Amino acid sequence: MIGYVTLGTKDLPRAAAFYDALLAEVGAKRLMDLGRGIVWGTSWAQPSLGILLPFDGQPATVGNGVMVAFAVQNPEQVDRLYKKALELGGTDEGPAGPRGEGFYGGYFRDLDGNKLNFFCMPGAAG
What one-character DSSP code corresponds to residue 35? Predict the structure, then answer.
């Protein structure tokens, strides 16, 4: 159902380097470079992520309560990607680990303060 999600940035080159390195870990690549933003994904048939300078020319801000979650295959991948996000300069919003029955996630903020996570649902039928 979700086609794509966009997040604002104040510094596109810095955000591009962060997401190029982080999303390559899950097989995503740049699908589109718009000049004022970049879209990453594994294909146009799957949901994608866009990082953009706001269209209205106003400074990018972080939406309180907004979070983008990336589904991955297993807890080991969550651990690796959470660690990679922090190595790239992201900040901790909740370490990788179990969150209730059957859910495993690691939460972080990107360089602009946008909240994201990598998660999996071990043992869930899929």
Answer: S
3-state secondary structure 57-92: CCCCCCCCCCEEEEECCCHHHHHHHHHHHHHCCCEE
DSSP state of 27: T
DSSP at 10: S
Q: For the stretch 40-69, what's the b/e string if a residue is b when 16 or more beta carbons lie within 10 angstroms of its beta carbon? A: bbeeeeebbbbbbbeeeeeebeeeeeeeee
Q: Which residues pair with 109 in a beta bridge?
A: 91, 115
Domains of the chain, residue spans:
4-53+62-120
Name the pTM for this structure: 0.89
Fold of 4-53+62-120: 2,3-Dihydroxybiphenyl 1,2-Dioxygenase; domain 1 (3.10.180)
Q: What is the pLDDT of residues 98-124, one digit of tens each?
A: 998 899 999 999 999 999 999 999 977
